[in-house]
């Protein structure tokens, strides 16, 4: 096939008067080898789909979706200012390191103050407990007559609860007398200034008693009072306790102690969340790299959730520290999370965050919805999308593919036929378009 030299590369349909200029030999005449597969599409055809599902097929005819930013010049001001203030690459890397250190410090300081060691008036360590911790062990672990849960009375200890414990509920049926308690806080008793049953949630009972606040957590003192009869119900601080009209061997009361050194409150809502939002916004408006933006934001959000806003359920006795266990769980989950994030980035995020092409660009980024798509199999230098045919391919049509100006190397590629929905029908056998303009004839369709 003889090919003329032009200044740009394109694919176009030849008119009848151009046939003599581009003669095809007998071996290159198109032969019909595409089978009509319209019947195999069945329900998934656009014409057969219900009207309320038509939006799933996209616009007809297909077009490239573009997003027109609001005030683009204003959105680019922070990045232009940064490039002007710090023109060097190493200067911006140093600024990024300082930025990440500041973000990590903003998470670490409130975490250490809220999860570190605190003491009561006697100097004993305050126990960090979880929202579902109870004095009476579950699954009959207390043994016969509760021997493994003693002492039942004359004992008190200080404890600390995290925030958001009022919303914690029992997710499996729990028998309280003749009731099956499910999907509600397990707080038994507490009405009429009475004690709570020993299997009640300690933090839920502390919120019900008004000793701590649900939004910030806090510290309290639990005093064991032994066996008690007739636990009354009451509704206080958005928690309704459960009545029980019999006796239980272990009961406790919750009181506040102003001498407790409970340090800082739970930082998840008051400190850490606003700071994480601030650092994320700053990274967004000053960053142009999709990889840097995605992985930095992912690591920051993962750290915030794992250590601050939704940490694992951990409890500590009075002789151990909570923070090392928390960091150990975080480190164990970080590597699988980064692996998953890398897969998500390579498969979808990098395409989403990449800058869109100019509106007048002749090379759309994803031309899957056009009838004929060129498939570059082994490009000599870089992958280049060569265009598509706007008409349905027919046997009688003859096409011209002009070479890029100044390009004199051999090119190896094939043609692919796709439906208007983007599903591949078939592909031609690849051939070589030599620098002299000739085309290698294979056993394909051309």
Q: Can you walk me through this structure?
A:
InterPro entries: CRISP-LCCL_domain (IPR051957), LCCL (IPR004043), LCCL_sf (IPR036609). The chain crosses the membrane at residues 93-113, 277-307. Residues 192-242 form the LCCL domain. Residues 354-364 have a biased composition (Pro residues). It comes from Chaetomium globosum (strain ATCC 6205 / CBS 148.51 / DSM 1962 / NBRC 6347 / NRRL 1970) (Soil fungus). The structure is a single chain. By secondary structure, the chain is α+β, with helices and mostly antiparallel strands. Among the domains are: 74-118 and 266-354, no CATH class; 127-139 and 147-255, LCCL-like domain (Ferric Hydroxamate Uptake Protein, Chain A, domain 1), CATH 2.170.130.20; 394-440, no CATH class. Helices cover 28% and strands 16% of the residues. It contains 8 helices and 18 strands. The protein has helices at 38-41, 72-75, 77-85, 89-115, 202-208, 267-286, 290-309, 322-353, and strands at 11-13, 127-128, 153-161, 174-176, 179-181, 196-197, 218-225, 228-231, 235-236, 239-240, 244-248, 251-255, 372-376, 388-389, 399-401, 411-418, 424-427, 431-433. Helix 4 runs antiparallel to helix 6 (267-286) and helix 4 (89-115) runs parallel beside helix 7.
